[in-house]
Every structure is written in C-alpha cells, then in structure tokens.
Amino acid sequence: MKDIKILIVDDSPFQIALLRDVLTENGFNVVGEAQSLEEAIESIKKEKPNLVTMDMTMPGTDGFECTRAIHKIDKNIKVIVVSAMMDDELIKKAKKTNISGYIQKPVDSEELTLLINRVMGDEELYSELENLYPNIFKESIINLFNRLTKTEVQVIDENNIDKEIHSEGIVVIVGIIGKCSGRMIFDMSFETAKNLVKILLKREAKDTKELLNVVAEIANMFAGNACSMINKNNKVFGLRVAPPTTFHGESMNISRVEVDNDYSAKVKTQFGYLSINIGFKRGESEWMSII
C-alpha cells in the first residue's frame, strides 16, 4: 500500500505519544500532531495528510466540529476517531459527519493498523479482489461438493458478462459485506435440488420448505467458505456473508444488478446443473468500526 501520511489530533500529549509509537512501529508516516482545532487546521494546510486520527473531546470543540473544518479544507482526507468514548449514538453521528472509522482507547495496535488499511485501501484492494475472487469461488464450490457428497464437479461456461439471469427454479441470493460489498447468486432446478438433498439427508425432503432450507444453507456455506478464503489472502478485506434470501418458482428472471465486476459459471454435478454468479461493486463498503 502507498505511503500513508497521518496527522494525530488529540489534546493529551500522553495519547499522542502512544499513537505515534503505534503508528510508526507499523510503518505509517506520522507527519504531525495537533492538540486543538486551530493547530489541526494549521497542520492540515501545511502537512497535507491522507488521514487524521481524531480525539472526540478537546477544549472548546469536539471531533465532529474538527472533522467538518478539515473537510472544508480537503474533503478527501480520511478521518478515524480514536476516543475513550464509544457508543451507537456517537457512531451514528460519526457516519453523518463523513468520518471513515471509529476505534476506542486504549487502542490495540493490530486493530488500528487493520482499520487504517481498510479505510485507505479502496482502489488497491478492489484490484486485488478483482483478481482473486473468481478462482476462489470456483475452488470453494469444488471443495464444498467434495466434502458434502464425496463427488467431483466441473465448473464450465465461465464468463464475466453482467446480464439478467433466468432462474431454473430455486435461486438463493447471499449479500457480501466488508471492505468491498457484493452479492452471490446460487441457482438450480427443483430436480437438481431434490437429487442433491436426497443424498445429503439420506432421504427425500419432507416438503418444499425443507428443500429450500437445505439449498439455502448450501449456498450460505459456499459463499461463506469463499469469503473466508479471500480473507486468508488479505485480512483487510474482512468479508462476511449476510443471511441468504431464497426465491422459487417455475420461471423467474433476476434483474441485472449494478456491479463493477461479475463472474458467472455453470457447475456440472452428478445431481444436475447449477449456476453461480458473483459480483462486487467498486467503492461500496461496510462502514468501519471496532465495536
């Protein structure tokens, strides 16, 4: 990651010294420090930092007012609050003030480093994810079927065309959150689902509800395992899956979703075919806090 210039804003010399040590030990370039709003404005104009660590309470002002003043000078400067005070109301207000992250004192060195890298790594991280995720999701579906059914599958018809998807009967959509946001679509026919579930349960599904629940959990494991593999490559991603949403019917079209990068493939299994579609959006990420 490129050199990150950081300004520390805190009214406590002790806290400034602690933060300076943590930041420099982890390879960041601390270009200055400020103990008041006036000093912060002066340092911003002089040092032109990429990121500011911001205390919440300071004489005559607070972190929100100071952040607004900083963004009047340069709206592209990222601000992370580093404060002893932290609750849901403060985080809500921080988001409205265009603060990029929030961490509580005393800071953990690893957590602070991870938070800064997530906040600052937008384009570089997206490019890394763009190169990683198709092969990892492919590996994930192969591994999943091998572990669940002891069978091999073939991933075929791979492409990167973002288009409307025609469902074969059961479709599961899993949202992905973290540094980059996205979604995974998992689709199969009722016949494929029944064949697969019969092997997994060692009996036929009792009803449609049970059938759909099993398919949704397979999709959840597929997406969750893939996200875990991506996080192992770079923990800054911090990807997690949201609860799956399942739709079913004889004929459904899934509208094209606006994503910047899209990977689709068919998966040939002993139980029938299924389709996978994964996409991520540039610049869309979960708001970062350690809470």
The percent range for strand residues is 25-35%
| Low-confidence runs of at least 5 consecutive residues | none
Structural class: alpha/beta
CATH homologous superfamily classification of the largest domain: CheC-like
Relative helix content: 40-55%
CATH topology of the largest domain: Chemotaxis protein chec
Summed up, the helix count is 8
H/E topology pattern: EHEHEEEHEHEHHEEEEHHEEEEEE
Shape: elongated
How is the main sheet built?
Answer: 7 strands, antiparallel
Could you name the CATH class of the largest domain? Answer: Alpha Beta
Tally of structural domains: 2
Average pLDDT: 90
DSSP summary, beta strand count: 17
Question: What topology emerges from the helices and strands here?
Answer:
Elements: E1 5-9, H1 13-25, E2 29-34, H2 37-47, E3 51-54, E4 57-58, E5 61-62, H3 63-73, E6 78-83, H4 88-96, E7 101-104, H5 109-120, H6 122-149, E8 154-159, E9 165-167, E10 169-177, E11 181-189, H7 190-201, H8 208-233, E12 240-241, E13 245-248, E14 252-254, E15 261-269, E16 272-281, E17 288-289
Parallel strand pairs: 1-2, 1-3, 3-6, 6-7, 7-17
Antiparallel strand pairs: 4-5, 8-15, 9-14, 10-11, 10-12, 10-13, 11-16, 15-16
Helix pairs in contact: 2-3, 6-8
Domain Response regulatory: 5-120
Keywords: Chemotaxis, Phosphoprotein
Protein name: Stage 0 sporulation protein A homolog
